[in-house]
Design brief:
Layout lengths: L1 H15 L5 H10 L1 E5 L4 E3 L7 E7 L2 E6 L5 E7 L6 H8 L7 E4 L3 E7 H10 L1 H27 L2 H16 L3 E2 L3 H8 L3 H13 L3 E4 L2 E4 L3
Antiparallel strand pairs: 1-7, 2-6, 3-7, 4-5, 4-6, 8-10, 9-10
Helix pairs in contact: 1-2, 4-5, 6-8, 7-8
């Protein structure tokens, strides 16, 4: 027990020391559960009651939901230092999750029980600010997705998607297949391959086997 708490405190000081006050860090270490997930593991699923929300230590998590035809729509990503504040709202209302959280790579996180974190909203200003800021940022990202779906060409959306992948993964070389991208865009691999070829001809990317090099201006 003591070793677990000491380990969580170490991780929290490493990743959230400038975000949370010391008493809150102590409470997170006491009540949180350290968890790891492999690529494609599901942290939170649609239609399931959410009892815990993740505080991301390392890795990248994709947040998505299904449309009326059960096709997945990519909404946004969570990375180190993030949490899924929208799932927290579901928890407060005791409603089932409307979103799916999927590990894009190996994930390290601290799972926080909802019955405790509700109390923190009143008790700790840093937690309240963290959740509100997180919710605001996620809402802006979802509105951006809606705008892109309505007004932007698929080519522009695809390049932005790749640029975001570069940002999140800290590398201009993306180890991703055309089919994986097609799944995120709810379209066919043939369509994605054709648009990627156009982006390459325009000098925005370079295609290789199972790898895409993205040119960021």
């Amino acid at each position: 027990m003591k070793k677990r708490i000491a380990f969580l405190k170490e991780q929290l000081h490493l990743h959230f020391d400038a975000v949370f006050e010391k008493p809150l860090i102590n409470e997170i270490a006491k009540n949180g559960i350290y968890a790891t997930y492999e690529k494609k593991d599901i942290l939170i699923d649609i239609g399931v009651e959410t009892t815990h929300i993740p505080l991301i230590i390392n890795g990248l998590v994709k947040i998505s939901r299904d449309d009326s035809h059960d096709h997945e729509i990519l909404l946004y990503y969570l990375e180190e230092g993030d949490t899924c504040a929208i799932s927290f709202i579901n928890c407060i209302h005791r409603s089932k999750s409307m979103f799916r959280a999927t590990a894009e790579e190996k994930i390290e996180c601290i799972m926080l029980p909802v019955n405790i974190i509700e109390e923190w909203m009143v008790k700790y200003k840093t937690w309240r600010v963290f959740i509100i800021d997180s919710y605001h940022n996620r809402l802006e990202e979802m509105l951006s997705v809606i705008k892109e779906l309505a007004f932007f060409k698929l080519e522009s959306r695809l390049y932005k998607y790749l640029a975001n992948q570069v940002k999140f993964k800290h590398s201009n070389d993306l180890l991703i297949t055309h089919q994986e991208i097609a799944n995120d865009f709810n379209t066919s691999r043939v369509v994605i391959s054709r648009i990627l070829k156009t982006l390459e001809q325009n000098g925005k990317i370079k295609l290789d086997r199972r790898k895409i090099h993205v040119e960021i201006s």
